[in-house]
Amino acid sequence: METQPDLQHMTIPPSDSQLIALSEDPWNAEPRGDLLRQFFLTPQQLFYVRTHGSIPAVDPTRYRLRLTGLVERPRELSLDDLRSMAPARTVTATLECAGNRRGELMAIRPIPGELAWGGNVIGTANWRGVPLAEVLRAVGARAETRHVAFTSLDEARFEGETVHFGSSIAIEKALSPDVLLAYEMNGEPLTPEHGFPLRVIVPGYVGARSVKWLGEIQLQERPSTNPYEARDYKVFPPEMTRQTAPWSRAQPLEELSLNAVISTPQDGEMRAAGPLRIQGYAISAVGSPVERVELSVDGAKTWTTATIVERADPYAWCFWEVTVVLATGERQLIVRAWDTSKRTQPEDASRLWNFAGYMNNAWHRVNIHVA
Amino acid sequence: METQPDLQHMTIPPSDSQLIALSEDPWNAEPRGDLLRQFFLTPQQLFYVRTHGSIPAVDPTRYRLRLTGLVERPRELSLDDLRSMAPARTVTATLECAGNRRGELMAIRPIPGELAWGGNVIGTANWRGVPLAEVLRAVGARAETRHVAFTSLDEARFEGETVHFGSSIAIEKALSPDVLLAYEMNGEPLTPEHGFPLRVIVPGYVGARSVKWLGEIQLQERPSTNPYEARDYKVFPPEMTRQTAPWSRAQPLEELSLNAVISTPQDGEMRAAGPLRIQGYAISAVGSPVERVELSVDGAKTWTTATIVERADPYAWCFWEVTVVLATGERQLIVRAWDTSKRTQPEDASRLWNFAGYMNNAWHRVNIHVA
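Structure tokens for the assembled complex are given below, as produced in the milestone run.
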């Protein structure tokens, strides 16, 4: 990225962070579930941070976004250029890391070198920015364009090499008016850890496609060869390893899957006997909204339907709650969701184990001690 | 202690502990405030653990309590001997460590070598055991007896020496029917960390007097010379140090002071704007129950009276709650209690600083971020 050759980088999480850090350099952190569940729109301070390397400290006045590849009129766009290209658009969308709930998979069988995420690597915001489609229209995408690749200004290490994080999406998705080059989150400028000054938002896709600190957009015939697109964020059968996996033959992760998580109480906590209000979130793929959320306290023999208390389809999670009466002892709470296509979640996380620990959407179970 | 020369000791906290460990060896731990505040009677798993050394692994069949000193009929009592001496008695009492809320004092000025306790080194239980007074009656206390000293079976390190934890109380307090040699807590046998098989319960006094793993009771004319009684658990003026303090001239800490703590939300947490339910506990000295608890959200300009939702005078805390409406921004919640003698708490913890960090009962302040 020649546009800002003296770009500085930050890596230390701020001392007032509301998040639980899983690693400090690079900074990776998720909120406590009960705090996350308070806000239908996740405040930036409670929004998970997933980074693969540095957090660039970008000077917005010197920032330029490069548009390259199969572009009729290659450009380097300032933030002002971008804002003047098209009216701003706001989209309410949930971002979820493909590694959300990996910790449960790691408890089944180790997953070396990956982060043991809990169930809170997810957040929802009102994203405001310029539709990517409008920018592509302005610069002109040549007819051969099949994929739109995004490259970050960060500095990451992938298998020993220094690289920028990157990703791509198919041109059909890129032309959706809801895919944004976003500069605001819940009415505030993006903070450095969330991609200041500009990030991609690909609603409905795993978080890895919503590249932060966007430095370059490349239009191309083939998907991105960035290692984070080509050799990461794919799911393989359990018998394969990172070394044996046929990376080039597997589809990259795109759509989020149906998932439901209990936010409060949290696993291992103690609660008083009697009526207990259980709260959580659920998410589903675009076009198949969450229809029903069910909770079982008797090992899946019977299920109580939860109330959906807030939702913002098609790209956002919903919030649910249900009150159950619990007697003293060790109790397991189990949640599962159904979507409008009558699909539901797999029962057992051990059936979903894969060497990178992605896309765990088994029934979420929380063990509590009722006293 | 010759009664069990091969006594084993444990030091590692269990992996399923509900507590936040401040040190592992010796094990010192307190619960999260919001979990603590759920139970008026604190479950053993949520009850703070304060140890100065090992946790003895006592074989109850071989256990003997030695009664020595100014005793008419010196005895070594088995647990069965003790239980047959007098009818069991149950007392609801709060134990609070004299170091509760020390962390706030340490933020004002360092307190080297002490634990930075939060505000949850406190708990309440139904204690069941034999009144100490009945045991003293059975063995006969000679007329010169002025103090009753307790010695633990633990192994602690005090200024480089291996010692047993110990303490003493005046004979007048020892003869109260509510001072117990307790073997049950909330209907269950004591767990190892809470003093199995037998501990002293001195209701209304700082926790340090309620000696765990009781090995010996010594009747004497003078207070205990155990270092934890003689050179610890005393409060000196701020200009003094551990080295310069006139230890022998200061009174040992006995009665608990008036205190109130906000349990939920916790300091530094984020909350949604609008009505917020604030919950906490309050405690006062025996004979002067908590009369009123007040909360301020405007820097002590105005106060809202909280509702006392549960209490069990004269030895237990009370639980309070109040709902306030908060606008977005950084907000400070302040709580203070008043007792029936119209005493209230000091405003400023900096006025209470002492080199050992005891007895902080300043207004409790919780800073939250309202979004």
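The longest strand of chain A covers residues 329-339. The mean pLDDT of chain A is 95. Further analysis is deferred to the final report.
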